[in-house]
Design brief:
This protein is mainly beta and 300 residues long. It has helices at 102-112, 154-166, 255-261, and strands at residues 3-8, 17-19, 21-25, 28-29, 35-39, 44-45, 57-60, 66-69, 75-78, 87-88, 96-99, 116-120, 149-153, 206-208, 221-224, 227-236, 263-264, 267-276, 280-283, 288-290. It has one domain: PK beta-barrel domain-like (M1 Pyruvate Kinase, Domain 3, Beta Barrel). The strands form four sheets. Strands 1, 2, 13, 14, 15, 16, 17, 18 and 20 form a nine-stranded mixed sheet that branches. The chain has a five-stranded antiparallel sheet with strand order 6-5-12-11-10, covered by helices on one side. It starts with a strand and ends in a 10-residue tail after the last strand. 42% of the residues are buried.
């Protein structure tokens, strides 16, 4: 088993980018989700509320700076606001962050047609992983939702796409939360002729080829090259996965099919959240070895 892709998302909820190699910090991949978007009151804004965020591309620009490009190709370089007065933000357990300058805020607000601010997490050790999300004392994360890294497997994605094709003619299962569908009225895909969903919809950090679909559900952890990771939990999925990351067109999949095959605790699940137990580097092609049961501390 090996790593087939590595992805980072410099600005939370904006489009990500693939990289051949990444440094692993204890709070996640270097440059991943250290920037976020908030409203005038400091409440976080994600693509769940504003899907247009997915249409922006964010790239690291050195020394924690980031370049943001819109769908028309216009871009702005934003330097880390070192020395700025901290502002309160609504990211859970974060408390405050450093605000970008007015030029960046104005540029982004004009394109989103609402007043927003860009903020920077200058110190990831400010934010702990929630205990009810599998966090242990002393573990931290970026502005990611619940864990430092998200891992998915190509084997699981292939099985999911097969289910989507097989179930195309079946009615929706009852009880799907309409808030988890970006277009509840969208038609089902047209059987095996439909284009398979791209795994990037799940916004993973690490993609591995895998051997058995959904075997990762049972991993206590894993080793990538010389770095050990602990699994905190399986990842519950939301409406963002139903938005095509290229066209921004909404729909029902993959939530519609996950609700039939992988729903428990009133949620749908795909991928695992993992915590680095040391630092170092990983690369495309790095060997992946799942941990034996009991090798690492298992999620609560």
């Amino acid at each position: 088993m090996q790593v087939t892709s590595i992805r980072i998302y410099p600005v939370k909820s904006m489009g990500g980018l693939a990289t051949e190699r990444a440094r692993v910090e204890t709070w996640g991949l270097e440059g991943d989700r250290r920037w976020g978007v908030v409203d005038a009151e400091g409440e976080k804004i994600t693509a769940r509320e504003v899907p247009a965020l997915l249409g922006f591309r964010a790239q690291p620009a050195g020394s924690c700076a980031v370049r943001i490009t819109d769908r028309a190709g216009d871009s702005i370089l934003v330097d880390p606001p070192i020395g700025a007065v901290r502002v309160t933000v609504g990211h859970a357990r974060q408390g405050s962050a450093l605000p970008a300058g007015e030029a960046a805020n104005r540029w982004l607000s004009e394109r989103l047609h609402q007043s927003v601010r860009l903020v920077w997490q200058d110190d990831p050790t400010m934010r702990s992983i929630a205990e009810d999300r599998g966090g242990h004392p002393g573990e931290h994360l970026s502005l990611a939702d619940a864990g430092p890294l998200l891992l998915v497997t190509e084997a699981s994605m292939a099985r999911l796409n097969s289910w989507i094709a097989d179930d195309a003619e079946l009615p929706d299962v009852p009880g799907i939360d309409p808030h988890d569908l970006s277009d509840p009225g969208a038609p089902a895909p047209s059987g095996r002729g439909a284009e398979p969903l791209d795994i990037v919809r799940f916004r993973p950090n690490v993609i591995v080829d895998g051997e058995v679909p959904f075997a990762e559900d049972g991993w206590a952890g894993l080793r990538i090259d010389a770095i050990d990771f602990r699994t905190t939990m399986s990842c519950d999925r939301c409406v963002m996965t139903t938005i095509d990351p290229v066209t921004l067109i909404g729909g029902k999949e993959p939530i519609r099919t996950l609700a039939r095959h992988r729903r428990w605790d009133r949620k749908t699940w795909f991928g695992i959240r993992i915590v680095p137990l040391s630092t170092g580097a990983i690369a495309v092609g790095s060997p992946v070895v799942p941990a034996r049961a009991g090798r690492f501390a298992v999620k609560p």
